[in-house]
Amino acid sequence: MSKKTVFLGCGSMGEAILTGLLAAGTPPQSVYVTVRRAERAQELAQRHGVTALAQNEDSNSNTDAVMGADVVILGVKPVGIAGLCREIADHLEPTAVVISVAAAVSLAQLEGALKPGQAVVRSMPNTPLKVGRGVVALSGGSHVDESALSAAHQVFDGSGVVLDVPEEQQNAVSAISGSGPAYVFYLAEAMAAAARDFGLSPEVAGVLARETVAGAGLMLAEPGADPANLRRAVTSPHGTTEQAIASFEHQGLPNMVLVAAKAAASRAAEMTGELASA
Q: Cα(first)–Cα(last) distance of the chain, in Å?
């Protein structure tokens, strides 16, 4: 018998996770989704074959959906997570695994809003889940055993690589893989701008930057790929690439990335504090 899996909130990230879960073989009839609007519910039901409920049509949709659920994915914005947990707490099975995909919401905050003993997993997915190339870091709460953690892995296995990390490393994960796609897109923007500065048309500049970054990413995805080795393979002695890399080093690019990542991690910690005091 398939596990009943419930998505409470299903935006673009939630739908990416849902798509991967179904692609991995989970029967659509065992999946329930709640969203705010009836139009969105109809869209998800038609696209994926799942049962989708709209809160503007049924105010009890969240509590009805989680009854008998084995796995519940909390997909609303961080500011709404604690309230959602309190809403569903009395309706969850004691054995249900609750998974949060909200940034900066701590395990203590999640457990504090649910009944004592509820298994809670904190996750940090990133947007490449949408193309099946995501990376997800999981941290289990104080009541999570091997079976509960395995259930959480199964939710994300169809969307990318799943890693287990201690909760105290979640902010670092957020700064590297959570925010990381934006860093890569920013690099692509800068490359395209440089191409335009050389006089290339915006169309050609965009293609050069976009396809170069995408192609390099595919090379990094090969088994055993190492970014330093790949870089050295392109960097011929006394050649053009060597000059560019030397310029990056002179401008302090590695330190710039470190400073940026620390700023992102610091903001994540601030957000956790803000949510705790809200």
A: 41
